[in-house]
Amino acid sequence: MKKPLFATAISCMDGRIQEPIIRFLKKKYGVKYVDIITEPGPIRYLDGEVNCAIMGTMKKRLRISVKVHGSEVIAVSGHHDCAGNPVPKEKQLKQLNCAVKTLRKWGYNCAILKLWVDEKWKVRVVR
Known about the structure:
5-stranded mixed beta sheet; alpha/beta; Beta-carbonic Anhydrase, Chain A
């Protein structure tokens, strides 16, 4: 089976988490490129916080990544010390569950991962 060239990461704009997520996805899936869709605390929007403009641009960017670049993996993440979504880890983990449901409603049937980036900037898959 041919490895996909692209994966997509929906993550916070926080620069501390970008490189760890990119390295994780490249290693785990053997992709060459990772499209990054960033917002401050994006999982709060994917969990239902209403902001039509942000949701619209996230949908557009995700569609390009999957339909044009051929991304077969979508990773959605939360992280320690998030200024854009300053809620406890437990709340972010619940938001991640809702985020996956939202992405499924948008029609994405590819692999969708939930990731947590801890206080040491280590990426962990959330089950």
